[in-house]
Specification:
Elements: H1 2-17, H2 27-49, H3 57-71, H4 91-94, H5 96-117, H6 124-145
């Protein structure tokens, strides 16, 4: 009897734990996946510049290309109305022109980083300021539009 009750309790907990999951095929799920990929790439690149990882110019340049590609993708996955589970502030939809302006600024910074990494040699000293501008563009948008 106790085992049966424990089993039912566990099944109930598992069922409830799945209720707050985000559908990976939803607009929110798609853009969260893109943002996570951006973060992963950015963390590796930042790790190279901050000494956590050995600097590899070719890997850094490849990361810049990947980051530039990713920086152009999440915007198409913002629906006309905010989803309930979104971390974005209502301002994304109320101040759409500003949001789009910051999205284009990020794209410009990632493109500038790619252009810089196409010039050999790719050194940490050469790319660090441009990478910081990419990080600053991310932070500016997060401060205005992400609900923490």
């Amino acid at each position: 009897m106790k085992l049966k009750l424990l089993g039912l309790t566990l099944i109930g907990m598992l069922a409830l734990s799945g209720c707050d999951r985000i559908d990976p095929d939803s607009p929110l799920g798609k853009r969260k996946a893109i943002y996570q990929q951006m973060l992963d790439v950015k963390e590796d690149m930042g790790g190279m510049l901050r000494g956590r990882l050995a600097f590899d110019g070719d890997a850094f340049a490849a990361g810049a290309v990947r980051l530039d590609d990713l920086s152009r993708q999440p915007w198409q996955h913002y629906p006309a109305v905010k989803e309930e589970q979104s971390d974005a502030r209502e301002d994304v939809w109320q101040r759409e022109a500003r949001f789009n302006e910051l999205a284009r600024a990020l794209e410009q910074q990632t493109a500038a980083l790619v252009a810089l990494t196409s010039e050999q040699p790719v050194t940490a000293e050469k790319v660090a300021p441009a990478f910081q501008q990419v990080e600053d563009a991310c932070e500016t948008c997060h401060k205005e539009f992400r609900a923490y």
